[in-house]
């Protein structure tokens, strides 16, 4: 009897362990299925692969024909490159000289310079096509460098510039005048903060606000609060999305240590919703709505432009539907839904992405443009999520500080920005905003098609990205032709063009003319010659062979 009971007990215990193991396995499998199949979707693997990639570069001969272009095409490319190099040397002389003087001492500059184009081409490009890192003034939709060259600004200052540089100069000047008497006093607040908080509450639809010094810090705090209040460990971010450079939101390449409490899941996928429904360790879901333009892909920098596989398309209805599904599952599961609007807030609509998509998050982060031209990060959220201590546990706090977090000058420039948003003049910028920018993109695409140029643009309102329609290894050269035509791009090149909303039709037409002229010049110089048999796949395979040869075959110093 006793033996029988023991056996029964063991059997029951075994069955329980087995069931638990099967459940664990199932949840594990579900998590795997919710990862995007690309390397970007597998942070750990991406880091491992990145560490294996050997450095190599093309010598001067190979540089012009790494796609086996015939000798006359290579010669044509070389002549075009030499002409461009000479133009850069003369036109950007002072700007380049000062850049060269400081480059060795500014780590950021060295990094951005090295990663403008695929690394196999980088050194030669840097030596001959440096546009320089300095500008002296801005006006309207243009910037002027040290040599007096005026360029149309398509950098958007990383997204800060929504209303035009002159507007931000005004915010900074009027703001400074407003708080001059107080100066740099920190700790006590300048009264402008009261207005800022009122407006941010109205705009976000949330109860409380906290001020930080950058978007990265705002995201850190939003995630920390979510973890504190849910008592859960993990954050979910979507494959490819950028949320600043803090470790937990950058689990892949770029972060020397793994982020153990981050799940990188597939955007716009049922498998992800299943994981959110099942797991009990998820504190928050972090959404950067800019991913709607290129779901599951990294920010499209030209250093990754090794072929023409880069694609983008914004489907507003589909992305809205996705956000609504996320909203629902987060509400059901007590997961904090965070919209990271640091980049897009105020660019799509005066009420940001929440208004644009008609979906309310639990916490929203803002930054960039909200500072009226000065550095900023802001978190807005529901009262119970923003609280940093527990009434019943006085020692259990969620700490967040920051010396400069409510600097009077920043708060005053923000005040000017928020006051402007209330004016009819600001509202006018948003009337038919998408229709205007979609029509402009369509017009440019029409011209590019009519000219037989293998280039097209995709856009999410005023944020654009360039794609290439036939396989090529040289698409990254377009950024240098665009600069030569007087279009200023950020260091990620043609991956992201950011227009400010003060671009008039005439300004835009001037940019479109220059864009087409640049692409025509590049085509005439032979860069888009291509072997009809080549595909993006064959290009990638070939690069893989080069990588393997340089890694494993001795004596492969150069290709
Ligand atoms: C969506 C998003 N979140 C956070 C950040 C980080 O902001 P910051 O560069 O001010 O730290 C950025 C910056 O580009 C961003 O685009």
Specify the overall morphology: globular
- How would you describe the oligomerization state of the chains in this entry? single chain
Largest beta-sheet details: 7 strands, mixed
What is the number of helices?
Answer: 20
- Uncertain runs are none
Strand order of the largest sheet: 4-10-9-8-7-5-6
Helical residue percent band: 40-55%
Distance between the termini: 79 Å
Bound heterogens, unique: pyridoxal-5'-phosphate
Mean pLDDT across all residues, rounded? 95
* Overall strand count: 16
| % residues in beta strands | 5-15%
Please give the radius of gyration in angstroms: 26 Å
What structural class do helix, strand and pairing data support? alpha/beta
Q: What does this 3D model show about the protein?
A:
The protein has helices at residues 2-33, 43-52, 60-63, 71-91, 93-103, 107-114, 119-128, 165-179, 192-204, 215-230, 270-278, 316-333, 352-357, 383-386, 408-421, 424-430, 433-450, 478-484, 505-524, 536-552, and strands at 135-139, 142-145, 150-153, 208-212, 234-238, 262-265, 282-287, 336-340, 363-367, 377-381, 389-390, 393-397, 455-460, 463-468, 487-488, 497-498. Strand 1 and strand 2 (142-145) form a beta hairpin. It has a seven-stranded mixed β-sheet with strand order 4-10-9-8-7-5-6, with helices on both faces. A four-stranded mixed β-sheet has the order 1-2-3-15. It is of the alpha/beta class and 559 residues long. The protein has 20 helices and 16 strands. Residues 158, 214-216, 219, 242-244, 288, 340, 342-343, 367, 377 line the site of pyridoxal-5'-phosphate.
